[in-house]
Amino acid sequence: MRRVRRPWSRCRSWTSSSGCAGQWMTLPDPEATRAVLIGTANYAPDSGFESFPEIARSLSDFAEFLRAETGIPEQHIDVVLDPSDGPTIAARITAAARDATGLLLVYYVGHGAVVDNQLHLTHTASRADEADVTALGYAIIRARIKAGARGAVVVILDCCHSGKAFGRDVLAADGEILRAATDIDGAFVLTATDEKTKFALAKGDGGRTAFTGMMLDILRTGVPTTDRYLTMSLLYRELRDRLPAASMPKPKALERGTAGRVALAVNPGWTGHPDPPSLPRVTATPYTAQVRDLTPADGLLDREPELAELAEFCWGDEPYVWWQAGPWAGKTAIMTWFALHPPPNVRVVSFFVTSRLAAQDDHNAFTDAVVEQLSALLPDEAAAVARVNTNGDALRRHLLDIAAQRAANTGGRIVLLVDGLDEDRGHPSIASLLPKNPGPGLRVIVAGRPNPGLPLDVPGNHPLHHCRRREVDRSRAAFDVIQAASLELLGILERSDVDQEILGLITAAHGLTGTELEDLTGLPPFRIARILSGPTGRTFRAQTSRFATDQIILLAHETLQRESENALGRALMDGYRHRLHDWAARYRDQGWPAETPTYLLTRYFSMLRGRGDIARMTDLALDTARHDRMLVLTGGDGIARTEIATVSGLWLAHPDPDLLTVCELAMRRRHLTQRGRDIPMWLPAGFALLGELARAQSLADGIPLRRRRVQARIAVISVQFGATDRRANRTLVDSLRGPGDRTLDDGELCSIACALVDAGDVESAEELAHEITTPWERVRILAQLVSVWWPEGRRSAVETAMTEINRHVLLVKAADRRDEILGYAVGAFADIGDVERAMSLADALLTFEDLIAARCRIARAMATRGESESARGWVHSILATAAKATAADPIGRSQVLGRIAADLVAAGFDDELREQVDDLVAQLAGCTPRAAVAVLEGLVACLVELGDAERAITLSRKFASGTEQLDLLTEALPALETTDRAAARQLAAEIEIESYRTPPDAYRRGFALHTVVRALVEAGDLPRAHAVVDRIDDMGCQFLVFTYLGTRAAESDTRAADFLDRALGTVHALLDQVETWDEQATDAFARTVLGTDWLGREHAETSPTPLAELVRSLIARGAIDRATGLAERLAPLYSIWFESADSLDRGLGELAAVFVESGRIELAARLIPTISGTLRRLTVMQLLVDRLDGDAAAPIVKPMLDDLEDEVLAGRIAEQPLHRVRLAQLSAALGDADRVARLMDGLTDVGPGAQRVVSALATARARAGAIDEAGAIAGTISDRGERIRAYGQVVAAQIRAGRETAALHTATRVRETGERIRLTAQVIPALAAKLGPAGGYTVLIEATHLLGTVERTDHRDRATAALVDAALAIGEVEHALELADGVESDLHPILLSRIVAELVRALADVPTTGQAAARARIRRILAQVWSVGRWYSALDTVARFDPELLIAIADEAVRFEAGGR
User: Fold this and answer.
1) Bond from prior residue into 791 cis (ω within 30 degrees of 0)
2) Residue 19, number of CB atoms within 10 A of its CB
3) Contact criterion met (CB below 8 Å) for 615 and 658
4) What residue ranges of the chain have pLDDT lower than 50?
5) Of the residues 303, 453, 791, 1226, which has the maximum number of CB atoms within 10 A of its CB?
6) pTM of the model as a whole
7) Under a CB-based contact definition with an 8 Å cutoff, are residues 384 and 629 in contact?
8) What domains are defined for the chain?
9) What domain of life does the native source organism fall in (predicted)?
10) How far apart are CA 1215 and CA 1175, in angstroms?
11) CB contact at 8 A, 418 and 446
């Protein structure tokens, strides 16, 4: 029998993507390349050869270029400076030729001599008068290269070829050159002179020889041409043009074969269009090792025709083929071999369904394996992979589409190979998930047994139903193997009980390691090894485990697995399984200790799934202690989340799902998802610095909060930026902006651009800067660019940037951004040497810290320009001033030093900074714990700049704890990495582990329990609700629940008054913290007291703030003073508010509205004038008008408008145009067209403000009943958002007026399809009410058909949500469910919650005979809600549907969420 070789050449003529064989131009394989660079710079004084330092510089610079730009590893570049003799040169070239399996590059720079028309290369012992015996003949070198080289050869000779020696600036000796002296077959030889020139110039620009200097300039700057690579031919042509033009010798090149197409580097001057993204040539993933374990150990025998047929299929027109065979036919052997040895230009993404292997036989395993392999093929899609936590199917489809498209664009193929369809155990089936319409870049190969047939969930139009079946004949080798294996199996069964026990346990477990067998049986390892390594070579085989230290031993084939099960019988097999269950129970009872076998943590679950043991599977998925141990073992929660998803899916498919269990599973899933919240934001970048990119990306992706997650991702890609590979840099940047994600804001773009500047890729930074429009971020990036442009001499770019910076400095008015812009501008002016302007701007800064930082930045610029003494005087003065001003304020001093540390170190004032640090460290012992942490923040920043990582770490461990300590230790990682990489890696791992051990987030836990309280109140179980209240320890959530209970009629007057008192006390306590500039308290106040989602996310758009509800209840109870006292504390918060002022605006606007609605207009009139800043007052008044009817708000707002109009028109208020526009907008909202005209008269260039005014006017007219006039006004609006808003008001007014047909017509005037659908959805209930359900349903169907034309997913989901509400309003629940199931975002569970709430409301109208079916349906939808959404979703519905279930959920929530895990 013959071993199979890859017969690809018989299948297809493999060419490049251009279709032209042999026309390729590419870079050499760095690992296969060897380079030997030789330079002789120093000769004996009496040698007759002059020494030149330019030779040494040329040698080192060319070596550095090869290291930095070509990717050739340093160990593959042999640099020989001043060789002592000829044999040394010959030996080094011979060794390089021997080791090179790809390109061999030989470079020589030094004196050349000619003896008897033969070129000789010199060394340090060469003499001009004895060159024939002291120099090395080039013919020897040529012979060595010819004898050893196996690939392309490039020889570069920077030496004289002929001519007489005259003058000091030549590298020449007497003689003439023989043309063929450089001839080597298959080589490209480039020389510094041609045959007519007798010398090469030794001295060129940049301290290098003239020839090498010019060559390096071309390699680094490129050639403006459409040639993508700098091939040797292109390099020679450019040298031939440039050198003579610079009065330098003309070079010469000789080419043999196609060596001229060899490229040394990418052409930086390339002017062509970028190629479509391509796929990597080779990708190895952990799953590859698993496939390799399935491959025949002795190779594939006698299967050349089958492999050739598979290769032909890859390039044929058939999208699908199904290979079928019975057991032991060798089908899997063919498929594994093909997966590991695909044809050229084919990338195989495979999955082998293997029911006897743990977690390898369902759609979850299929998706995980395919996503893993596609992620390796598409590294730039890391962000898309990161964003998906639950919808792996969508991610798999997304990645497969991209890979197939890239393959098609580059002349390749993606082959999706799935073997073992008959062993699929999951639901949905893997077959149903295979692509229905593979594009030109994708082919699908499936393999399996003929029976069973396709699963029922495979649609009738799927290609699997009608694709070609290919029967596989059993090979002779396979027949021999099965016979031998069956005999071996019988032999084991007939041997001792111990042999039978080992076989039974391996069969029951579907594979165990030797260590696990030892633990289970108590047998010594040598006995187990003897049994497994005896005459059973074909019965068992070893499987590599990703987590176990030793290999997994399992039966070699599924047929043997079944034969073993049948032979052992049910009773014995049940006994072995019970031993496994008891084994698991033993470790569970111990709390899953560190020595827990990996089988129980990673493979036991799969065995249970194969048995359908949902009870035990559920127990494992709910076991948080086991999850914690799995985290330590695997480094993540992926397996635990998969187990939870699997069990949830099983319960979801159950005819009567256990809702309490499904809800508990959702609790565990949420807990695992939130583990990453305390990961320090910069820790992923620390791992990236250590070279652990996969871990870095995984960590960054696990951070729940989007802002922190994006910043972490930015830091990770910043570590990867390179100075020259612009395309790679742009790919990294684009990876942050995947489909469906929010657009990066200007601050994030600026952070990326600044990182690009730091990395040396200024051009990419410039491109990104064009996307930034926010003034302070524009100034920030421009200042960074100026610091690079100025030393490069790019005066025009600097002048343009400085003009813009000046403009922003002059125009900035907002106090919170003014100092930020001035600070950046100071740095820019200092960098260009305009110290006077920089100082004037610095002096205008308002805060002491900003002033010190600006002056230190100026000192740094001075030191950089060489003005060290002046800079030193500045620094001493700055530090003295800072020390005096902060003598009694160590926190303030720390903050100042942290701000200026980088500038001090960059300017060379390390000692001065270290002295300040020492003084500050001495004060730490006298600080309170909280103050010590605040001091450490600046101290650690200083120590990191000084490179003193050990001290930073020691202080952090001593004075900080918890997440604050982890953040400080993370900040020290970069400095530690530069001095002790191993220690840095250990510290990073420690930080990661501790991050996962931090206590649960109090707010998230409290908000969930607050939702439980609301549901219990809905169910009427007040005692239990009150008991849950006592378990909430987050102050903001306490306020929410106190306010809710105090404002609900379910409470008695006494009890309600008590809760209102507690709510009021809590909000005042929060305010006390906010007023001390506590950032965390401000955040808590904004998201709870001023939040709008406290009654559920589905009500966030319409809910009043809890603060407004509290004040309303206080007024209703006559507690006017307490209500006004609370309101009066809010207005002054603007000056210390850390969060967006929008939340504070909304809170005050709602309070004013509550006062008006409660009949206390005077309270509103008293509140608004206390708000500082005209614009802020206008904003609050606008919110008041929007909240109330214009007529209701007019008594408060109009008098204030009169006064403000007089002041604005008289010019007594700054920023007059902006104030006029805002006044006009407010007047328009009140319908006061005359005032609008007065305010807008003469105003020009007011941007979108004018559009907002017109929109407000349209809204006011629509509310006043002037619908046609409102519609006409809306039609004049050019701004997209304002036009949609105005038409929305017109549609609402038409519906109120009973003009549904006109409302539908108005909706069609909105050009954006998604918004048009949303407006149409508003009309549908009114149409159904007037015309009957059929009238509304017709429009609903028409609008549904439009959904497919909405391109953006988020817009389509919002439109779908509107249609779901419309469908529910007209009783079309089935249609609503169908719509909701098409949503893949976080809206999905929200829509399902709305649907199930409607079903519960309608339950009372269902006849008795239909109650059971209706309730079963509700239970299934609730299970679906919790399977994809938060566990506390729809609890208010549960309260009405099944109060007992709610009580059980509440009890479990208290136990789990309140810390009883």
Assistant:
1) no
2) 9
3) no
4) 1-25, 162-182, 387-390, 535-537, 739-742, 1100, 1245, 1247, 1460-1461
5) 1226
6) 0.63
7) no
8) 30-266 (3.40.50.1460), 286-416+425-452+466-474 (3.40.50), 476-590 (1.10.10.10)
9) Bacteria
10) 10
11) yes
